[in-house]
Input
Amino acid sequence: MEFSSKLLENAVYEMSQLPGIGKRTALRLVLHLLKQPVSQTERLGGALISLRNHIKFCTNCHNISDVALCEICANPKRDTSLVCVVEDIRDVMAIENTSQYNGLYHVLGGKISPMEGIGPQDLTIPSLVEKVKSGVVKELIFAMSSTMEGDTTNFYIYKQIQDLEVNTSTIARGISVGDELEYADEITLGRSIINRIPFENSLKAH
Ligand SMILES: [Zn+2]
Output
């Protein structure tokens, strides 16, 4: 792509670094911004910079939060003995939307993926294991997507904690393999959380 302006080229390049945005889409978005009042671009830029500079992660569950302890962890009505292990905030949002779950979460921040060079230490797994060791958790619910990386991650955590005093379960998979939690419909997902099965049973099914 040949550009008549270096400024335009730079903006398109930066936009095209985002997932799912090719050079053509990037150019379309940038040209769109150019047609809008400059205040819109300033708000967009400001929101992104402010997000990056001020975002916090909950010290307990590692979810994205504006404060040290997120709303869910700070809510005294939530059952602290129940911890649902998820990949990221999208899963938390999907499960919260079902209104069927009253426990807490533990956000791993990704999945173990040797291909991408992501190991257990790159995720919040050590903090999860510590949490279980402290004895407050009675049940750990695995809710990672049922991809190979998701299964690997679940199994790795399971191995770390299987000798500790904690029950493990997994959300029943009415959800087809490969479906991400965020795309599952709320009723199916809500039912899966209520009808969760012991984690050991899910291992035998493989
Ligand atoms: Zn939290």
Observations:
- The first strand starts at residue 56 and ends at 57.
- Residues 38-54 form the longest helix (17 residues).
